[in-house]
Amino acid sequence: MRQPAAVAIRRGGTDAPSRAAVEEALDAGNAWAKRAPVLIAAGARREDAAIVESRDYFLLDTGMALMSLLYRAVDQGLLVHPMAGWKEGALRAALGLPEDFTPAAVVAVGYAGKSGDLDEATRKKDEKPRGGGPSVRSPFRSRWGSRSGQSCLPSREGVRDRTAASVRRHRRDGHVNNAKIVTYLELGRMRFFADVLGAERVEDIRYIVAEVSCRYRIPILLHDRVFVRMHITDVSRSSFRFRCDLYDPRDGRVFVEAESVQVMYDYGTGRPVPMDAAFLGRARDYIGG
After folding, report:
1. Are the CB atoms for 91 and 97 separated by under 8 Å?
2. Domain residue extents for the chain
3. Contact 42, 104 (CB under 8 A)
4. Residues 92-120: pLDDT tens digits?
5. What pTM value is reported for the model?
6. The domain at 157-287 falls in which architecture?
7. 127 with 114: CB under 8 angstroms?
8. Long-range contacts: 192-198, Cβ < 8 Å, 24+?
9. Separation CA 40–CA 250 (nearest Å)
10. Class of the CATH domain delimited by 5-125
């Protein structure tokens, strides 16, 4: 099987003729995308993917490839916007796509622009608050149409809701003060120790924070939801390092990239202590390996 394919068209240079034709293929509501440095036409051939009974997987493969593109681009500080508003015939002609290739999306890749550059209708649509549904939707249970009202997966909404509430309480001039970021990271660490070691009391937290470094990528605003994503990257005799992201689960934007060093500590003796083998084993189980 082959991977889905994509054609990238940048602004200017030798891509100019194709770029102009692709821009003409966009619907009027996507005229803003003409300002994007790169447009990508993504799709696949039916025969290049698995076909099981009546199920074709080539468009699923394309969707998964686009999701990987979204994750990677956001991690690099880019904005990515897949679009369905374009004319297929014009797009095929612009890029010389073969008949057996099915384009699935045109994707704009670039950086955040200025709302003043948009036409009034697009600007109003862009400024309209976006509604976010629950992060884990309840599926039908047992049979189609039957819902239990409960998620199939254990919920962590309590911690997530507390984090979202603290964004609203601690905003400053419309955005969260950078100093507050360290508190969000501590919430993530506390949740980690609660899940891994069952920590419920201060005495159960057997580490001290030796170092925290943050890279502030974009401000956290009043309407943003903030989740903490973290994993262990390095372990030494008595310390370990967390790699953390603060991100919005609705669109994947990363607000802050951070690292922290924790030292296992004996409060009785006031000295660092070696890493506990049981802790390491539980940490491996928690992060899947």
Report:
1. yes
2. 5-125, 157-287
3. yes
4. 999 999 999 999 999 999 887 777 777 77
5. 0.50
6. Roll (3.10)
7. no
8. 192/230, 192/242, 192/286, 195/286, 196/279, 196/282, 196/283, 196/286, 197/279, 197/282
9. 22
10. alpha beta
